[in-house]
Every structure is written in structure tokens, then in C-alpha cells.
Write a structure and sequence with these properties.
This protein has about 500 residues and is an alpha/beta fold. About 35% of the residues lie in helices and about 20% in strands. The longest helix has 29 residues, at about 165-190. The structure holds ligand BES, manganese (II) ion and zinc ion. Manganese (II) ion binds near residues 273, 275, 350 and 352.
Length: about 500
């Protein structure tokens, strides 16, 4: 999909489809007023006749309207003007994509970014257009044998703006939105694949392919012997029950100044989490193929960063393996020595994410990072706390936590702060090792993050628990691509504030 900005406040330009917004009660949006005049008062009449109420998500396609330069006009309901905000704007865009997909239009001009949206400048209004179009047009790489539905004919989308200055901002917003969209597609593709295809070795190969496509990425993929040489005892314990060999993926992107401290992004890459000897219940166990979503996210975020050529140094680290039961699997009560030297008593083999992440966090120290952010589908407890709306955000650094929370708000990919600290570390006490890997049911998301914090001492570290946000269940089952919008926004703003 090609995205462009075009100066056309009066809806004069020729296009396959003009997308104009109409609020409730016959309250026409900016472009709709112009179109109404061009069509001799047709929009006012449609409202008067009760044919278009302007409720949020309402759609009406006017084919070949005489008087307009557009081959089609698509009316989009925006709801009540007083309640129109970020959410409503996004919803209107989502409905737009669905409706446009059912037309034969090859190109379209979207006039919705002309509307005032509180807290959303023109760059973000344009960015949302690109993001929403990419996300809505995403197709799961399914293995169904029936013929694939034809791809929509739409191949070019323009965002109408008022003047040259707005066009410049919109163009930059579209560039970011398209990059975020492409990062999300990569991440969703990886996470949606079945776990017999998307193995640790496969993820390693995909990271190498990414580095081949973008020579500014340097990639190193460690195998079991490399991981052993690094003394990642906790990571090795998780993988030891599986027939699939593990990988440690490390990608370096040097877009910033030579020697400038990088941001390390670490992603949990469990390609299937059966629970191990602490076997999970069967219901929804299939969804544990998504347990590598953190890894997919950081690879997708890297793709976006590289497409944007952001002047920043980024290191992506993905420890990836399966968590399986077998005669050789790690058992409850086993004690392992982590790369940091701290010993861990594994009381529950299903708390495996923190075991692979703690060694990855230790490994990140060699890059002398400015910040370390791990992304993980870490705890069911985080879903209990926050549902599917917010990612959990824990950090040992106030300003880093603030940056991430603000990025989530701006990018419409929000995270909510949850506590960590000594009280939770107390729950992880072991009589036999430095620390246990579980700390009881209470505050499960916080004990998991507090476990990680024991390995992040003196680092500027944050943790995003995306157990509730990385994928959808039920009829909509599939990867969401979250929290890529948040991470990319965070990195863009790091660059700007430096
Ligand atoms: N990958 C799971 C967390 C998870 C569960 C994410 C359900 C999304 C949906 C993680 O490895 C896990 O099993 N966590 C345990 C921790 C417990 C044993 C302390 C959990 O949340 O039950
Ligand atoms: Mn688990
Ligand atoms: Zn897991």
C-alpha cells in the first residue's frame, strides 16, 4: 500500500473514492460540507430523509455522484462531535478500510484527518491512517487449502490536509505509520505460525533473513553450545526437555553515533509453552504458540526502526526455545546457576519465561545499554489484573517508566504501571537457593517482574508484560502486533529528546 499526503481541503481532487466524515444530527465534517455543496445539498437531504444518521461506524457509499470529482464518495459516521476523540477517529478509520475493501476503488483520498481530534496533531492523525490501514488489511498466513480471496484492488491512499505545512507533518506521520505497520505484520506473521513451523531455529533463520534484507542489521545466532559457553544455566534448564534446539538471537543496529549507548530490547521467545513437567491444563493450550510474541515484537520493532533509519543504536535479544515435558526435562526442585551467578530453585517449570529472560538481561550488560526493555507474555496474573486493554509496565527507573507510559498513550497502545520491589522479592525466598522462580498466587505479575529486577540491578530497566495484549482469543484468535506501536514511539521520542 502506498500512502501519500495531499493538499485538498475543499475535496476537489479526482480519486477512486473520497472518504468524508459526518457527525450525528446532520453535522457535516469539513470535507463533507464541501461535498454537500458539490452535490447540491445531497448530504443534508440524506440526513433529513433518515438515510444517514452519522452514528460512529455508519457507512454509506455514493457511487458516481454527479458534481464530485470522485468516482465514489464514502460517507463515514463519526458519532457526536462532542464525543469525537482518538478512539472514535480510529474506529472511523477501521470502518473505512472495511468499506473500501468492498468497493472497486484503486485509490482513495481520506478526508478524516481534516477534522479536529483532541490531543492528536496532524502527524499522528496521518500516522493512524497508515497504521489502521496496514493492520486492517493484514491477512493471517494461514495454511487453508481453499483458494485465497482476491487481494483488494486498493493500492494507494492519500490523506487530505489543509496546507503545505500540514502536508509535511502528515508525510512524516505516514512514513512512521507505514513502518510500524510493516513491523507489526512481520511480528504477527511469526506469532500466528503454528509451533511446528515457528521453531527456535526458524526464528533464528527469520532474523538472519531480516539482516539480509536490511544490511544495517548485524545478526548473531547462538546455538546450544554457544548458549552453554555463555553459562546461561536458567535458559538451558528450560530448553532441556525439548527436542527442538534452542537459539539466542542477537541483532545489532547502529543508526546512532558510534559508541553511543544502545537501547536493548529483549523478547521472550518460547515457541511453545506446554508448562513442562508442571504441565498446563489442556484448554487453550494451543494459544501457547503465541508465547514467543515478545520475541516477534522486538524483531518487528527492529524492522520498523530500520525502515525509518532512526538515528539510534538498538540491540535486539531473543532467547528462544520450547518448554516441554520429557524424561530429560527440568523438574520442580531443580536448582540452576544463572549467567549472573545467582542460583534459582525452579519450583514450577511453567514459570519459564523469567528463566530465559534473566539470562538475556545479564547478557545485555555487555552492550553497556542506556536502557533495557524486555517484552514478554509472562503471566496469566497480568491478564487478571489488566484484562486485554493494557500491557503491564514495571520498571526500576521512574523516567524510563514515564517515557514508556507516554509512548503508549500517544501510540494508542497503552501500558499501565504495576509495582515491583522488596515485598514481592520476599515472596520468592527459597531455603535452598538464592531465589525461587515462583512466589505464590498473590501479585503474580509483580513477583515475576520482581524476579527479573534481581538481574537488572543498576540497569535502566523496564518490563512489559504483554500476556493480555499480544494476541486475541475466540473468533478473532490471532496476534495483535502489540506493543510495537508503543516501542517505536518510545524510540522515536528518545531520538527527538537527545
Ligand atoms: N506463558 C505463560 C503466561 C501466560 C499464560 C500468558 C496464559 C498468556 C496466557 C507463562 O509462562 C506462565 O505459564 N506463567 C505462569 C506463572 C506461574 C506458574 C507462576 C502463569 O501465569 O500461570
Ligand atoms: Mn509457562
Ligand atoms: Zn510462558
Amino acid at each position: 500500500m502506498e500512502f501519500k499526503a495531499t493538499i485538498d481541503p475543499k475535496a476537489h481532487n479526482a480519486t477512486g473514492c473520497a472518504v468524508v466524515g459526518v457527525y450525528e444530527d446532520g453535522d457535516l465534517g469539513k470535507a463533507a460540507r464541501e461535498v454537500d455543496t458539490q452535490l447540491g445539498g445531497l448530504l443534508a437531504k440524506l440526513h433529513g430523509d433518515g438515510d444517514f444518521a452519522g452514528k460512529l461506524g455508519d457507512m454509506l457509499l455514493l457511487p458516481a455522484p454527479a458534481g464530485s470529482a470522485a468516482e465514489r464518495v464514502l460517507l463515514v459516521g463519526l458519532g457526536a462531535r462532542a464525543g469525537f476523540g482518538r478512539k472514535q477517529y480510529r474506529k472511523a478509520l477501521q470502518s473505512t478500510v472495511q468499506a473500501l475493501g468492498k468497493t472497486g476503488a484503486k485509490d482513495a483520498i481520506v478526508y478524516l484527518a481534516l477534522e479536529d481530534v483532541p490531543d492528536l496533531d496532524v502527524a499522528y492523525r496521518a500516522r493512524s491512517v497508515a497504521e489502521v490501514f496496514c493492520a486492517q488489511l493484514y491477512k493471517i498466513p494461514d495454511l487453508k487449502t481453499n483458494p485465497k480471496p482476491k487481494a483488494p484492488r486498493l493500492s494507494s491512499v492519500s490523506v487530505a490536509v489543509a496546507d503545505a505545512r500540514a502536508a509535511k507533518s502528515a508525510m512524516e506521520g505516514l512514513r512512521i505509520g507505514a513502518a510500524v505497520g510493516s513491523g507489526m505484520s512481520l511480528s504477527r506473521d511469526l506469532a500466528n505460525l503454528p509451533p511446528n513451523v515457528c521453531t527456535p531455529a526458524y526464528l533464528g533463520t527469520r532474523a538472519q533473513a531480516l539482516a539480509k534484507a536490511f544490511p544495517s542489521i548485524k545478526v548473531k545466532v547462538f546455538d546450544a553450545s554457544g548458549i552453554k559457553a555463555l553459562k546461561m544455566g536458567a535458559f538451558l534448564a528450560v530448553t532441556q526437555g525439548s527436542d527442538q534446539p534452542p537459539r539466542l538471537i542477537v541483532c545489532e543496529y547502529h543508526g546512532g553515533k558510534k559508541g553511543a549507548a544502545p537501547v536493548c530490547l529483549i523478547g521472550k521467545g518460547i515457541t511453545f509453552d506446554s508448562g513442562g513437567i508442571s504441565l498446563k491444563d489442556p484448554p487453550a493450550m494451543d494459544e501457547m504458540k503465541f508465547d514467543m510474541s515478545g520475541g516477534a515484537t522486538v524483531l518487528g520493532a527492529l524492522r520498523a526502526v530500520v525502515e525509518l533509519k532512526l538515528p539510534i543504536n538498538v540491540v535486539v535479544i531473543v532467547p528462544t526455545c520450547e518448554n516441554m515435558p520429557s524424561g530429560g526435562a527440568v523438574k520442580p526442585a531443580d536448582i540452576v546457576t544463572t549467567m549472573s551467578g545467582q542460583t534459582v530453585e525452579i519450583l514450577n517449570t511453567d514459570a519459564e519465561g523469567r528463566l530465559i529472560l534473566c539470562d538475556a538481561i545479564t547478557y545485555s550488560r555487555r552492550f553497556k545499554p542506556a536502557a533495557v526493555i524486555d517484552v514478554a507474555t509472562l503471566t496469566g496474573a497480568c491478564i487478571v489484573a489488566l484484562g486485554n486493554h493494557f500491557s503491564g509496565l514495571m520498571s526500576n527507573n521512574e523516567s524510563l517508566a514515564g517515557e514508556l507510559a507516554s509512548a503508549g498513550i500517544r501510540a494508542d497502545d497503552r501500558a499501565w504501571r504495576l509495582p515491583i520491589g522488596e515485598e514481592y522479592v520476599e515472596q520468592l525466598k527459597s531455603n535452598f537457593a538464592d531465589i525461587a522462580n515462583v512466589g505464590g498466587r498473590e501479585g503474580g505479575a509483580s513477583t515475576a517482574a520482581s524476579f527479573l529486577s534481581k538481574f537488572a540491578k543498576d540497569l535502566h530497566w523496564a518490563h512489559l508484560d504483554v500476556a493480555g495484549t499480544a494476541w486475541l482469543s475466540g473468533a478473532q484468535k490471532g496476534s495483535t502486533g502489540r506493543p510495537i506501536p508503543l516501542l517505536v514511539d518510545f524510540l522515536i521520542n528518545r531520538v527527538r529528546s537527545k
